Amino acid sequence: MKSYQFLIFFSIVLLIYSLINYYIYIRGMQALPEGMGFRNWYPWIFLFVSASYVIGRFVERIWISPVSSFFTFVGSFWLALMIYLLMAVIVLDLFRLILYFLPQPAVLATNYIAVKKYLFLAVTGLTGIVVLAGHINALNPRVKRLDIHIDKKAGQIKTLHVAAASDIHMGTLVGPRRTAKLVQMLNDCQADVILFAGDIVDEDLAPVIHSDLGRSLVKLKAPMGVYAITGNHEYIGGAEAAVKYLEDHGVKMLRDTAVKIQESFYLAGRNDRDSKRFSAAERKGLGYILDGIDHTLPVIMMDHQPFNLQQVVDAGVDFQLSGHTHHGQLWPFNYITEAMYEVSWGYKKKGNSQFYVSSGYGGWGPPVRTGNRPEILDIYFTFN
C-alpha cells in the first residue's frame, strides 16, 4: 500500500477510534456521581487503556520488549471491551430517549444519581465477564473432524488424512505457548499432510523472530509435507520476508501454483487476493494455476479469502479450504461476515466442488472470541 494511502487510512481509523472512545468516556463520566473517589481516577484510567493499543503497536515497531507486549495486551483487551461498552451505551441511550417521551418512573425521579452509578457498575462488570469468557474460549481451540468424499480415483491412495489450520496470527498475542499448542494439536492428528490456509503470521514479522516461534514450526510432522499459502496479513507486514521465514522453518509455500503429490492428487495454493493492494503483484488466475494438470485426479486447493466460489466450481476444483473471516470473531460481527461471504464458516457443496471455511485458530486484535470456537481441522478424504 502506498504511504499516502496508508496515512489516509490510518487517520480515518484513528479518528473513528477516538470518537468511539470519547463517546464511551463521556457517558461513563456522566454516570459517576460528584464526590465519588473513583471519579478522579476515571479519566486517567480511561486514557491509559484506550491509548494502550496504539502505543503498543508503535513501540513494537522500534523496540520489541516486555513494555511493548504489555501495552499491546492491555490495548487488545480494550478493543473487545470497547466494542461491548459501545453497544451497551447505545442501548442505554436509546432507552433514555424512550423514557424522555414517557412519564418518568418514580425510582428514577427520586434516585437518579444512584441508578446511574449502579448502571455504570453493572455495565462494566457484565462487559468484563463477557470479555473474560471470550478470552478463555479463545485459548481453548477444538479439533473439528470433516469427512470429505471426492468422486475420483487418486492413484493408489484410497484415503488421505489432512490436518489443517488457518488464521494463526503468530506474533505478540499468539506467542510461544499458543504456537507450541497448535503444533502439538496438529501432530496429534497424525495426518499425512498439514495445511495452513493463510494468515500464519500477524502483520509484523519482528515479534515472530524475536520470540523464535519458528522453533515450534520445525517440529511439525507429516510424511507428505507441510504446505501453506499467504493471507492478507502476510502482505500487510511484507509477504516476501514472511514467506522466507516460513520456508526456512519447514513450511512449503504454494504461491499461485499446484503440485502433484505421490502421483495421486494435486495440491494448489493461491496468493492472497490483497497481494496487488499491498505489493503491486497481482495474483494469477485459476486458469494459469491449473493449466496442464490432470483433472481426472483430485484437486485440493487453498485460497485464504472465500470469494468467487463459482469460479472455483467452473475451474474443476474438488475441494477448497479457506479462512480469513474468523466468522466475525466477536458477536454480533458474525452477521456481517455472513452477509459478506457465501460461506462465513463451515461446509458447503456447490456444483461438483466442496468448500470449507475455517473460523481460524488465532485472531486479529483482541485475544477474545465470543461468536464461535477457534478450531483446527482433522479432515479425512476418501476417493473412489
Structural summary, described in words:
The longest helix is centred in the N-terminal third of the chain and has 35 residues. The chain has a 6-stranded mixed beta sheet with strand order 1-12-2-3-4-5, with helices on one face. It folds into 2 domains: 135 residues, no CATH class; 242 residues, Purple Acid Phosphatase, chain A, domain 2 (4-Layer Sandwich), CATH 3.60.21. A hairpin with a 2-residue loop joins strand 10 and strand 11. It is 48% helix and 16% strand.
Topology, please?
Layout: H1 3-31, H2 37-62, H3 66-100, H4 106-138, E1 142-150, E2 159-165, H5 176-188, E3 193-196, H6 206-210, H7 214-217, E4 226-228, H8 232-237, H9 239-248, E5 252-253, E6 257-261, E7 265-269, H10 275-279, H11 286-289, E8 299-302, H12 309-314, E9 319-322, H13 333-340, E10 346-350, E11 353-357, E12 375-383
Beta strand count: 12
How far apart lie the N and C ends? 46 Å
Order of secondary-structure elements = HHHHEEHEHHEHHEEEHHEHEHEEE
CATH level 1 class label of the largest domain: Alpha Beta
Report the principal-axis shape: elongated
Please estimate the helix content: 40-55%
By CATH, the superfamily of the largest domain comes out as Metallo-dependent phosphatases
Number of helices: 13
Strand order of the largest sheet: 1-12-2-3-4-5
Please describe the biggest sheet, giving its number of strands, its sense, and whether it closes into a barrel: 6 strands, mixed
CATH topology of the largest domain: Purple Acid Phosphatase, chain A, domain 2
